[in-house]
Amino acid sequence: MKNTREKIIYTTLATAALYVILFLFFDRNIDLWMHHHMLGKAAESIGKQISVLASLLYVNIALLCAFGYIVIVDPGIRKKSTKKLFYIIITVTVAIMIGEGFKYLLGRYRPIMFFEHGEYGLHFFTTKWVLNSTPSDHTIRAFSFFTALGFLYKHTMPLFMFLALMVGASRVVVTAHYPSDVLFGAFVGIMTAVWMHRYFFEGIKGD
Description:
Elements: H1 2-38, H2 42-51, H3 56-73, H4 80-106, H5 111-117, H6 137-152, H7 157-173, H8 179-202
Helix pairs in contact: 1-8, 2-7, 3-4, 4-6, 4-8, 6-7, 6-8, 7-8
């Protein structure tokens, strides 16, 4: 438990440091380059298609169908397969809730505001769409879902991580988010999957 906790603390600190570095020195230049070189190109079109994999509508429908299946088939969650499905549902749902909390708290301008108005930075406690760039929701949904699947089917973890990375990268290519937004989203998704897996399948024991 202690080693796991230390790893999580170090990972959190490293992610926070990288986020700050990207925020201060790299985000604007990377997104400006994408805006000037990818706008209207095939890469942008492909990026939009990849982003659809983690669109809110499709994810919500999938969560609703999965939950309905559990209620109808195994409401007591006694079967192993049902428990796995419930783990995925809870992981993605909790990750989304955490992400929305940070979006409201930080209120970061989206790239479009930088391109059109030169606005960049954080404006705390806001629900305005143009001020909720970080963390990336698409990335959170992708990483929470695919990481959870990877824990359940460990031999396919590399494939699932590749798919999650593709979704995260697509958000930068279409200039919907900054790289640090994607990093933050990946962190939230992965950490949520880790903690939920410990709760569902390993048990959370004291030191």
